[in-house]
Amino acid sequence: MEKEGYVSLFIGNLSSFEELENYVMQSYTEDGNLVNSEFGKDFNIEYYDDDFREVEFHNEPSRDLRVILKSFSYDEKIIPEFIGICGEHLDQEANSVILLYNFDYDGNVKESKQFRFLGTLQYK
After folding, report:
1. Can you tell me the distance from the alpha carbon of 36 to that of 39, in angstroms, rounded to the nearest whole number?
2. Which residues contact 102 (CB under 8 A, 6 or more apart)?
């Protein structure tokens, strides 16, 4: 759910940046009704604001959260905080990252076929 000052982190593995973009892309019908993204469907998220979403695809998968989260908005804050939640090294490699800012995901779905929810924290 939308909540000012919170960020939710999802990691996974896809084959390309284009596949990642398609996975998170929301669209609208001619009548203006939202067509949820595959990501939204997988994690039972009815809506998220695309203006507060960041995604990144890394050519080289990594287990290191410092590498995975480098260059995201507020990285100086969120990297040490997520390391505190998840540890510095993950138990699986990831090449795709989704961050939803101003969003406090409740974690009702922890994993999908390709992604895993790692946690939510306050970033400001």
Report:
1. 8
2. 2, 3, 4, 5, 6, 7, 49, 52
Q: In whole angstroms, how far apart are CA 66 and each of 24, 31, 62? A: 23, 43, 9
Q: What residues form DSSP beta bridges with 6? A: 122
**Alpha-carbon dihedral angle through residues 99, 100, 105, 107, given to the nearest 10 degrees:** -30
Instruction: Summarize pLDDT for 58-100 with one digit per residue, the tens.
Output: 999 999 999 999 999 999 999 999 999 999 999 999 999 999 9
Do 24 and 115 form a contact (C-beta atoms < 8 A)? Answer: no
Containing structural domain, residue 51: 2-122
Looking at the 3D structure of the chain, how many domains does it have?
1
The predicted-structure confidence for 93-118, as pLDDT tens digits, reads as follows 999 999 999 999 998 899 999 999 99
